[in-house]
Specification:
Blueprint (H helix, E strand, L loop, with lengths): L19 H15 L6 H16 L16 E5 L3 E6 L4 H5 L4 E6 H15 L26 H4 L56 H6 L11 E3 L2 E11 L4 E2 L4 E5 L4 E7 L5 E7 L4 E4 L3 E18 L4 H7 L6 H5 L9
Length: 337
Amino acid sequence: MALDGIKALTFDTGGTILDWHSGLREAFAAAGARHGVTREWSHLVNEFRRRSLRSIVNLGEHAPPTVNFDDVFGTRNRYGRVEFFAGCYHPTYKAQGLDHLETFDSGLAMQTCKAILDDWTNTGYDPFAAPMETGLAWSGKKVGHNTAAINRARDVCRRMPGLPGDIPLRTDRNRYPVNRAFLDVPQDEPEIHAAPGFEGEVHAFNLFAYLSRSDVTWNPSVSSVCKHSLFCPTTEEYILPVKHANDRVEWFLQLSDQIEWQIEDGVTGLPRAKIVMRPGDVAAMPADIRHQGFARKRAMLLVWENADPNLPWLHAQGTVPRSPAEEFWPESAPQRR
C-alpha cells in the first residue's frame, strides 16, 4: 500500500484502543461482591454506556451539555507550538500518573485538526456556528464536506476595520448578513467630522453593527491594533467547545446579553469561581487559569489583551503579576507553585 498520499491517520479509541467495557465490568463486579450483590454486569455496563452517551451527545436543543471530557483531553496554545494533553488537568488522572502531554508545531497541529474536522463534517453542517442555526447534525453517516466553513479565515485587522488597505467592514455585499439574534441592532455608521488637515487621521465604525454580522461563535476577530494592545470582539452562543488556558491576563467586557464562565486553576484544573456577566460587566481573567463559557442566547463580548510574545515567559518566571488584584494587593496573591 502506497503511503505517499496519506496526510493524517486517525484511530477509534473507545472499545478499540481503550477497553472501557472490561474495566467497568470488573469494577461493578467488585462493588457487587463487597455488598453481596450478583447481577449480569456486562448488561449493566452497556446500559451505563448508553446513558452516559445520552448525557454527552447533547446538541443544545434545551441546554448546554452537562457532561464532557474536556478535563481528560484538550489543547493549549503556546503561540507557535500547541500542547495536546490527556488527563493533565483532571485530579484523578493526575494522581494515578495517567496524564500525558506532547507539544507540536502549530502548523502541523492546525493541519491535522482541520483534516479530522473535515472528516467528521457533513455537507450543510458548520462546526463554528451555534448548534441551533447550522444546517444538519454532524453525527451519522458521512455525507459530503463543508471545507469552506472549516477553512474560513479569521478577521484580523492591521489597525482597524474599514481603514484604507485594511479588512473591510461587514456588510450584506461581502456575505456577512445580520445574525438572527441581532436583527434589532442599528446598522448606522458614525459620522466623522474631522478638523481641516486631519481628514485622513480620524476613523470610527459601529462595533455593535460589526459584531451583529459575525458568522462564527467563540472565535474572536481582531478589530483594533495599537502595538501589542488588541481588541478582540466576538459573539458567543451555546458553549465554548474547549477550556481555554490563559498565559496572560485577558480583560472581558460584556457588551450584550449574558455569559456564564466556569473558572479553574490552570495547573490542577480544580474549580476557582463561577462568573455571570451581564451588559456592562468587566472581568479580568488571570494569567494562571482556564475558563469555559456558556451563553443561552447569542451574546457580544469584547476581549482586550496584551499580545506581547514575552508575557508567557515573564509569567512563568514570576516577574509580572498574574492579575490586577495581585498588582495592587500583592499580599493576597496565592503562593506560586
